[in-house]
Design a protein that fits this description.
There is one protein chain. With 224 residues, this protein is an alpha+beta fold. Helix content is 34%, strand content 30%. It folds into 2 domains: 114 residues, Alpha-Beta Plaits; 91 residues, 2-Layer Sandwich (Alpha-Beta Plaits), CATH 3.30.70.120. α1 runs antiparallel to α3 and α5 packs across α7. The protein starts with a strand and ends with a helix.
Amino acid sequence: MELFFVLHIVERTKTEILLNLHKELNLSLVLGTLGSGTATLEHLSLYELEPSEKAVVGTVATGATLKELIKLTKRHLFIDVPGNGIMMAIPLKSVCGGKTLAHLTEGQTMGGTVENMMQFDNELIIVILNEGFSDNVMDAARGAGATGGTLIHTRGTGRNKAEKFYGVSLAEERDMIYILASADKKAAIMQAINEKCGPNTEVGAICFSVPVSETAGLRKMDEE
């Protein structure tokens, strides 16, 4: 049985609709947080736009439920049209214990396969950095081919050990940026972030990536 961690990033005004879709499919574990777009103030001013406020919603779905969730988000949120949010599915390698598996999949349609599970055309780059330096990271990322990202404010733990390892001062208040990129651009983007904003800089950024087997809302990227 295939299992996926499914991540949606949509406008906050669409949060209730998205949560109702999760409820309709009996998804028992739904995690939500707030985020914001990473467009610079200069770009926003140029086009007379307001900063975008995002909702980030995650859940665990079987392969069969994932297919239904994709259909519903396309139908109700038009997420297959660029500009209406993005959706991505990250394959889970393992689950600890039968009770955990039962909890995660309770009420879901079992079975089902996703055809391109092992064809990772896209990857999710996760960047963790000191608070207030998101523009630095996104400037570096865009210079290497990234088209955008989503910013989430977090609070870090284990700061003392991290400072000892990297030899730099790290803030407790941290930012996290999600950047969805095509697999062939991923390495260049991560290298640019590390060189310009890495652990030895005031930005203190560390980054890693995970494979994404399914996406929606990235038609422009898929056509390139």
